[in-house]
Design brief:
With about 90 residues, the protein is mainly α. The protein has a domain at about 1-65. The chain is built from 3 helices and no strands. The chain has helices at about 1-30, 30-60, 70-94. Helix 1 (about 1-30) runs antiparallel to helix 2 (about 30-60). The N and C termini lie far apart (about 55 Å).
Length: about 90
């Protein structure tokens, strides 16, 4: 989480700036605020894209931990699955 903290702080900062610029543009009619809002949105897009790429890279590099399931657990799950299927068949026949 630490490596994403800086990017997330930058996203939050840009979002706050965007809110103020959109407010000024919408309610005070200042054209320059509209241009600034568009630039901020472009910065947000770049930040989000880079954050998305970092997360994707981390997902690819993540170690997959395989679980070992005992034969008894597999058999118990099989029996439970069969009971569920049988009960659903009975419900559809009614």
């Amino acid at each position: 989480m630490n490596k994403y903290r800086i990017t997330m702080a930058m996203v939050d900062e840009n979002l706050e700036l965007l809110k103020s610029e959109v407010y000024i543009f919408a309610y005070k009619g200042r054209k320059a605020s509209g241009i600034s809002a568009r630039n901020i949105l472009l910065n947000l897009k770049k930040l989000c894209h880079s954050l998305r790429k970092e997360i994707g890279d981390d997902l690819k590099n993540r170690v997959i931990v395989k679980r070992t399931i005992s034969p008894e657990s597999l058999e118990a799950a099989k029996i439970k699955r069969q009971k569920t299927v049988e009960s659903k068949k009975r419900q559809t026949k009614k």
